[in-house]
């Protein structure tokens, strides 16, 4: 059944159930719901078509039997770059099998039943960061939980890492999430085992905001072992996905989900990652859209830190060792940084005079000879040290204390 | 007694005892021996005077009663920068108490007795790297051991770190030194407890070259607990100092000794260091003269790695996690670096087709719908996967394996 064949009252009712607070443009919202099940995450051809015609217009064109030539012309005209007819033809082939039938109404029915909300980019509350993904951005988001946490994303950090985390990594994930919550940050992650789960857990335990982005529909909590954790995230924060209810997580969708984590948050920190961990993919997305990227070092003897060291060595990730340093990725450095231990002799004379002082009294000449400094320099330095109570003078000369 | 008052035959004999292989210019070598006990390490005014007049000429001028004005004029003329009379006056005040008496003859007597050699910059074998210190460079070096190891310095790395090393740090120091020796590197360090000692020990155990720079005279092994280690370094490598025999190590001299470690080697690696460790001073010297600087990460929960993380975070030290990566600081990267885990869909279609395959046979249309790819793309990808033995086709469609 094409969208045009569905009674608009049915569309309005289905949309109202998942968008109770926003009755505007139900047709456009419905079309985005449809597209979220038609185009795989990150499909930039769909992004371009929707940008050019609106979701509803693009869907109508699809139902009316777009030819590859017409689609290619539209994409070329709107993007200003030549899009090949073959690209358009492949896109149509991708979309058509999924665009038929009443898939979207079924997605919406399940969503409404489960209390899932549909969110679109024009919404008052929308994670603006994902717009930086441009044409690769999400067409819509399906969410469970409170929208309040979306408002906190301008002060958020993604904490991600290996599923096969070590005790060290889990400890750092907990400390980091708790410390960042104390500093007013919301924690974004992917609800996976290991680092992700620890980060969410510590955020919840600290009373902080947290968002989990899933690779499949939010009606199917994944991994199943994190069912109760995800229920708690839903209760205090938010569980979100760009895929409609019923969608399975696939490897492709995990990789694309990672771009949402990187883009929705203000900075990404990889806490533990093997040399080929999926967390490096999240890090790559963060770097690609210019988000600050941090990595936590660990023992070089631990394979679980090898990916972090690689990010620091080869990809300019910032070495972060504490919640403060993670916060600095977003809010800039605090002013308590210490100066480089200088190789310049700024306090050289002080050190040399102190070296020459002992508990036995010495003459200024002796101190000058021992320190290799001039008598005048020794005299003025001894005066300072006396003021500080570090040196004292008696009849037989100068001594420490 | 002034140098001019010492019989040249006595000078020649004293110098021959510490320079048995090089009879050239005994007067200049003697004057450098004198200066090494007159000027504290890193005294750039002495460096400038010696550069202008030669060590012998500068010493003669000192003995003849340089006025501050004449010295200031000499320094200004030779450096091209205005040197204040006060600076010259302070230098003369520093030098004069030490330049009198027969200190140098006594230093040479002790050196000869102990088998110490005197080395000067014009020597055939001289650690050229220290010349990068310019006017702050050593006037002479007093050494124990074989000069062969000096020839290996073009392929050397300084391994330094905290005295208060952890088991982790000592393990890394051992692995690193052994691994670098295997790769043909000489290990330079400071013979201190902790990291330094481990680095020397592992270098010796691996049959590699190693040099220890001391902050006091080489006749007084410091720390005393490393007496037998230093004897072994002397036997297989070299123990060196810019201070004459009998000189005590002072805090100032430790800081200046660090510049020799940084300059004599081709790169410096800090293995473990607290936030204010003296190793950071060595690192600062290395950076100041443009030597590659590496730091080994460790657990962020370990205070003994905090200085290393600080070097990586704030001072652009390279994060190094293995002997190979340390060697890269000197010889450049090897070509086995892996590409960044890409966020681009380079193997996207492959992943999506694989996701859609299972042990149950599926039609190409089904796979296209599940993967969100066009039929044509699915067909070509299935062809590739079949060639690789990952997918197979039967009467009822395609399946994994």
TrEMBL record, chains A, B:
Residues 120-329 form the Smf/DprA SLOG domain. Pfam families: DNA_processg_A (PF02481), WHD_DprA (PF17782). Coiled coil: none annotated. One of its GO terms (biological process) is DNA-mediated transformation. Residues 340-389 form the DprA winged helix domain. NCBIfam families: dprA. Belongs to the DprA/Smf family. This is DNA-protecting protein DprA. The lineage of its organism: Bacteria, Bacillati, Actinomycetota, Actinomycetes, Micrococcales.
């Amino acid at each position: 059944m094409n969208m045009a064949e569905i009674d608009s009252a049915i569309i309005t009712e289905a949309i109202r159930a998942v968008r109770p607070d926003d009755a505007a443009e139900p047709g456009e919202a419905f079309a985005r719901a449809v597209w979220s099940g038609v185009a795989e995450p990150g499909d930039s051809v769909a992004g371009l078509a929707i940008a050019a015609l609106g979701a509803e217009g693009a869907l109508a064109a699809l139902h009316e039997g777009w030819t590859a030539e017409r689609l290619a012309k539209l994409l070329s005209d709107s993007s200003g770059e030549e899009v090949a007819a073959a690209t358009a033809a492949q896109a149509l082939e991708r979309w058509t099998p999924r665009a038929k039938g009443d898939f979207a109404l079924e997605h919406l029915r399940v969503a409404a039943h489960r209390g899932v909300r549909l969110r679109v980019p024009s919404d008052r509350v929308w994670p603006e960061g994902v717009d930086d993904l441009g044409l690769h951005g999400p067409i819509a988001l399906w969410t469970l939980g409170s929208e309040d946490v979306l408002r906190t994303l301008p002060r958020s950090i993604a904490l991600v890492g290996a599923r096969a985390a070590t005790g060290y990594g889990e400890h750092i994930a907990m400390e980091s999430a708790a410390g960042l919550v104390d500093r007013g940050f919301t924690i974004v992650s992917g609800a996976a085992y290991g680092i992700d789960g620890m980060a969410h857990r510590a955020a919840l335990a600290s009373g902080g905001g947290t968002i989990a982005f899933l690779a499949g529909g939010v009606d199917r909590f994944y991994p199943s072992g994190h069912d109760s954790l995800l229920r708690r995230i839903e209760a205090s924060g938010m569980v979100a996905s760009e895929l409609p209810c019923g969608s399975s997580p696939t490897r492709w969708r995990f990789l694309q989900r990672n771009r949402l984590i990187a883009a929705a948050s203000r900075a990404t920190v990889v806490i533990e990652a093997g040399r080929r961990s999926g967390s490096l993919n999240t890090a790559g997305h963060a770097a690609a859209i210019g988000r600050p990227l941090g990595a936590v070092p660990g023992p070089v003897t631990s394979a679980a830190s090898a990916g972090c060291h690689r990010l620091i060595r080869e990809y300019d990730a910032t070495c972060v060792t504490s919640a403060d340093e993670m916060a600095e990725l977003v809010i800039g450095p605090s002013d308590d940084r210490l100066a480089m231990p200088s190789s310049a002799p700024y306090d050289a004379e002080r050190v040399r005079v102190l070296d020459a002082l002992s508990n036995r009294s010495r003459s200024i000449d002796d101190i000058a000879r021992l320190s290799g400094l001039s008598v005048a320099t020794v005299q003025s330095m001894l005066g300072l040290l006396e003021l500080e109570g570090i040196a004292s003078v008696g009849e037989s000369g100068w001594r420490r204390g």
